[in-house]
Each structure stands twice: as structure tokens, then as C-alpha cells.
Amino acid sequence: MKRNLTIHILCWGIVLFLPLLFFNSPTDSWDVTLIRWTRSLGGPLAYMALFYVNYLWLIPKFYFNGKKGAFYAINIACILIALGFVIEWWNLADHLLTDKVPWHSAKGPRPPRVPAYFYTALSLVMVVGLSMAVRLTQRWQHAEQARKEAEKSRTEAELSNLRNQLNPHFLLNTLNNIYALIAFDADKAQLAVDELSRLLRHVLYDNQQNFVPLYKEVAFMHNYIELMKIRVTDGVKIETDIRIADDDSTPIAPLIFISLLENAFKHGISPQGKGFIRVEMAQEHGQITCAITNSNYPKRANDKSGSGIGLEQVSKRLELIYPGHYTWERGLNADATEYHSKITINN
Hints:
The longest helix is centred in the middle third of the chain and has 69 residues, at 114-182. The chain has helices at 2-17, 19-23, 30-40, 42-63, 68-97, 114-182, 186-204, 214-231, 258-267, 310-321; strands spanning 212-213, 236-243, 251-252, 275-284, 287-295, 326-332, 338-346. It is rod-shaped, with a radius of gyration of 37 Å. It has ten helices and seven strands. It is of the alpha+beta class.
């Protein structure tokens, strides 16, 4: 409102007072200039009145409500009234001010003639058109803003829904791993529960934020890997190459990479406890990269260690949070023995 009010004041200030520059002459006194300017005020005052009659009343009450016939009829009457006002202003100025500054002086308006009436009427019609253009533009801007707000609310609701799905999904997968540990190593299972409590702190609190510092997400990934190491055998080779500073506070969507890591542990280890997993993360030149490569051992149909919704959630979250600012390369190598997944996010 303040911005719009300022714009209106500036524009009408220019329309009303700019003629002072053209009616001024080095040989004339300031009184003469003011008289010439007063003679010219009829038109701008009529324009202003007609503009705001349309802007504040006719357009929102009639045009926007579909009463266009009434809108045009009332405007014709208003234009005729405004034209009569301009003519009377000219006549009054002729009667009161001619003896002080004659009409035939070098500068200033002249008494109206018939062509002048036509041009004034045309100017009044253009003022109506201007008020319609301003009002329609504002209406479009408000509609566009409302659409963006609705889209933002929908996106936030969808992201919240995805986060709510991700929490139990992650917890279920981790509990399945701990359950498998209990059967053959209770001490490791107890250690895994302790590691899980650290992970849950990140999942339950940081995951409720839209973004978290990158170093927190890296610490979460590291803790998850350590938890998984408790379960796997020595036959599984796990390599990490994380080139991210311990205090890197670059904002990143929480848990955006964890499903890739879960997928690697799910499909990268054979029933005999063999395989490899390689994790690479880096932050360079405004790009955050997470690349995970693992051996490929497809799970049997009766394996219930995961529901398969993790990667689908990753795709949806990337599209909602980083539309047009990410790439995701994934797939098997030629002989289907390795699976590679690489996400690059441009901040």
C-alpha cells in the first residue's frame, strides 16, 4: 500500500506540476508563471478525477463483476461531465485572468476551440484506458501472487508428507538391521541401538527443518555408515571419500542422500556377506555431490528388508526442493555387477 501510494503521488505530482517548467520564461515574473499554470490545471484535474472514479469504483464494482454495459454507459457520462468541467475551467480562466496575462502572450494555454474539445475528450478516454490497464495489471499480480502462495503451500504440504513417510521408512530399515544382529551378536546389537539413538536425534529434529548445515548431514551419513559396519562381515569392503569441511554450513535438504546409502547396503551385500560399497561426497564451486557405488546383488522376492519407497521419495524431494538445479545419474554397469548413483546439487 505504501509503495502504491508513493507511485500515485509521484505520477500525479509530475502531471500537475511539470507544466510549471514550460510556462516559465526568464522575462516573466513568478506570478505570471503561476497564472499560466492555473489556466492549465483544468485538464489534469479532470484526468485525475476520472482516473480515480474508475480505479476506485467503476472498475472493481462494475467491470470486474461482469456489468460491462453499465460500466461503459457510466463512463460515457463521466467523460462528458469531465469535458464540461474542462471547458468551464477554460472559460472561468478566460474571464478572471485574461486581464492579467493575455491569452496571446508568448507562453501558456490558449482559449479552447472545437478541435481542442475533441483532443480533450480523446485524452479523457485514454485516462479511462489507463486506469483499466493499472487495475487489470494489479488484479493479475494479485492472482499470480495467490497462485504462487497456493503452490508454495501445496509444495510444503507435500514435502511434509514425504518427511513423515521417510521417518518410519528409515526407522523400519534400521530396526530390521538391529533385529538381524540380535540373533548372532547381542553386544553388537546393543551398540547398534546406541548408534541408532544418535541417528534418531537428527531424523526427528533436524528433519523437520527445510534445510540443515551440510556438516550435520555429513555427520549423519557417517554415523549411519558406522551403524551398518556393526552388522556387516569383514567380507564387505566399505570405502568413504568425503571432501567436505567439518564446519561447512552450506544449506542442504535433510536426509536427501540417506536413501541412496540405504539402497547400497540393501543391494550391495551378498547373502554370503561379500561385496563393496564406496561413498564419495564433495562440495566444490557451489556444487554438492554425493556418489555411491556398490556391488549389485538383487534381493529375493521374499526379502522384506525394505519397501522400495526410498528412491522414489528422493526423486520427488529433489524435484520439489531443487527443480532445475540438480542432476541424478544412476544405473548398472555393462555386466550388471555394479550399481552407481550420483546426485549433484547446484546451490
